[in-house]
């Protein structure tokens, strides 16, 4: 039932919002072909469930009189869909066409004439040259998920051939004309209803679209659609909100997504462009939630390090600390002073953060004495990668700069602390941050969707993911 995953992406979706998307998705002709293959398997299976009603009637035959006949137990024994196409109609949507299909049936016949004479047998029937054409319309429900329906379905039966078994051969011609007409009418009506049911059934799968995906205890990400898709002969593009929100609170960040365009690449089934806006909305959310803060204690420093978080080590650089607070352990509070800024340039992703570092001396009774507050400007390089159906990352330190904000122990040369804080960032803060970044956040997906042959490029203002897709259930 997973062709819905493509149908959701290849038809006109009427929406009223006009904001720039934070995420763009492009489905290519290669992706449509994969969806067609899945769709045909589903439709063929569904066609085999057609129920042809029993047929009966009376035919007047010269010299014999009225002949009563009935056709019963008609069952589908085979269905073939040798040729089908799934085409994008620029500016409109998607059209499904099935040509030269056939349906084979088996059933029983029975006649009664001259009041007492009865005859019976079986027959095999084949409907050939069957064509089905339908358009798929998609609307958005109240949650931002697409809802599909079949419109403008047309079915035509090419020819009907019948082979009878048993009974008097002169009776066969009585049935042929009747069967041809009745069967055409029954099939043409049922097939379009069946196609409508197949499309409607896809709505259960469409509900798996992660319009709002939970990231962790702090954040969700929203993938609702913000504009009608752009349909061309070769592909379709969807614009999605692609915005992080604090869990339970939809507070807009003080910035908006900028317009960006996906390149004309078509080698993969699917392309996903994730803008810097999406990453920066995540930074806004985590900073707002207070999640970008960390207490650092001595037990977090590698045991073999000569630098310890105590007043003795810091007293080497700031003698007044050792004099006023001799023999005490210390702790540091590192927290962002404003929202970190994520920048995407070709082959380069960076994060710039402005933090404060507050140092405390820990007294034996666990009370804290503030020693100083530093401003810490950092720039890190980010490696972005796809893990499963999530976008993940890892960072490494580029540079840092310290300035003194407040001192409770008198003036001291801040640059003397560079080596300490280089160590703290590299062996404590960044590894902890990378553990969280490795968990990643969900990409827009449908159902049991698996990404394969995935490639990622960092481009100007966005990250481009090119991937093929498999559905596993």
Give a topology summary.
Elements: H1 4-7, E1 23-28, H2 29-47, E2 55-61, E3 65-80, E4 83-89, E5 93-113, E6 117-140, E7 146-156, E8 159-165, H3 172-206, E9 212-214, E10 219-222, E11 225-231, E12 235-240, E13 243-246, E14 270-275, H4 276-288, E15 293-297, H5 311-317, H6 319-324, E16 329-336, E17 341-345, E18 348-362, E19 368-387, E20 390-407, H7 418-439, E21 441-442, E22 449-459, E23 462-471
Antiparallel strand pairs: 1-12, 1-14, 2-3, 3-5, 4-5, 5-6, 6-7, 6-8, 9-10, 10-13, 11-12, 14-23, 15-16, 16-18, 17-18, 18-19, 19-20, 20-21, 22-23
Helix pairs in contact: 2-3
Written account of the structure:
The chain is α+β, with helices and mostly antiparallel strands and 473 residues long. It has two domains: 30-206, Super Roll (Bactericidal permeability-increasing protein, domain 1), CATH 3.15.10; 216-471, Bactericidal permeability-increasing protein, domain 2. It is 22% helix and 47% strand. It has seven helices and 23 strands. A hairpin with a 3-residue loop joins strand 2 (55-61) and strand 3 (65-80). It is rod-shaped, with a radius of gyration of 35 Å. One of its GO terms (biological process) is innate immune response. GO terms for molecular function: lipid binding. This is Bactericidal permeability-increasing protein.
């Amino acid at each position: 039932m997973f062709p819905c995953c493509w149908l959701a992406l290849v038809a006109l979706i009427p929406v009223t919002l006009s904001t720039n998307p934070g995420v763009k998705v492009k489905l290519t002709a290669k992706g449509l072909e994969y969806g067609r293959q899945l769709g045909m398997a589903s439709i063929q299976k569904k066609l085999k469930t057609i129920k042809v009603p029993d047929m009966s009637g009376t035919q007047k035959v010269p010299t014999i009189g009225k002949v009563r006949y009935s056709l019963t137990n008609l069952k589908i024994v085979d269905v073939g869909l040798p040729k089908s196409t799934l085409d994008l109609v620029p500016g409109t949507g998607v059209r499904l066409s099935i040509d030269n299909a056939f349906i084979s049936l088996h059933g029983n016949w029975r006649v009664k004439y001259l009041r007492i004479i009865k005859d019976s047998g079986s027959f095999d029937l084949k409907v050939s040259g069957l064509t089905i054409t339908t358009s798929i319309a998609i609307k958005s429900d109240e949650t931002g998920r697409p809802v599909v329906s079949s419109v403008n379905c047309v079915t035509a039966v090419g020819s009907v051939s019948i082979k009878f078994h048993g009974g008097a051969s002169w009776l066969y011609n009585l049935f042929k004309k009747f069967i041809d007409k009745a069967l055409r009418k029954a099939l043409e009506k049922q097939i379009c209803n069946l196609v409508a049911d197949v499309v409607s059934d896809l709505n259960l799968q469409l509900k798996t679209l992660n319009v709002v995906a939970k990231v962790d205890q702090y954040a969700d990400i929203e993938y609702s659609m913000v504009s009608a898709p752009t349909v061309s002969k070769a592909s379709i593009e969807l614009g999605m909100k692609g915005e992080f929100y604090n869990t339970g609170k939809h507070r807009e960040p003080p910035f908006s997504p900028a317009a960006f365009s996906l390149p004309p690449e078509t080698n993969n089934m699917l392309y996903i462009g994730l803008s810097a806006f999406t990453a920066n909305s995540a930074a806004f959310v985590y900073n707002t939630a207070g999640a970008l803060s960390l207490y650092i204690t001595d037990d977090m420093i590698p045991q073999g390090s000569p630098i310890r978080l105590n007043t003795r080590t810091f007293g080497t650089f700031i003698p007044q600390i050792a004099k006023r607070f001799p023999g005490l352990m210390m702790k540091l509070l590192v927290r962002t002073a404003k929202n970190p800024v994520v920048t995407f340039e070709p082959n380069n992703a960076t994060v710039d953060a402005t933090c404060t570092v507050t140092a405390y001396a820990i007294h034996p009774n666990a009370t804290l004495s503030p020693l100083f507050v530093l401003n810490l400007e950092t720039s890190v390089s980010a490696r972005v990668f796809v893990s499963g159906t999530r976008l993940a990352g890892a960072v490494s330190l580029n540079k840092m700069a310290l300035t003194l904000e407040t001192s409770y122990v008198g003036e001291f040369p801040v640059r003397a602390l560079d080596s300490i804080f280089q160590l703290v960032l590299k062996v404590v803060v960044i590894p902890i941050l990378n553990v969280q970044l490795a968990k990643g956040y969900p990409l827009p997906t449908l159902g049991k969707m698996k990404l394969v042959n995935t490639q990622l490029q960092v481009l100007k203002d966005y990250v481009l993911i090119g991937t093929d897709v498999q559905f596993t259930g």
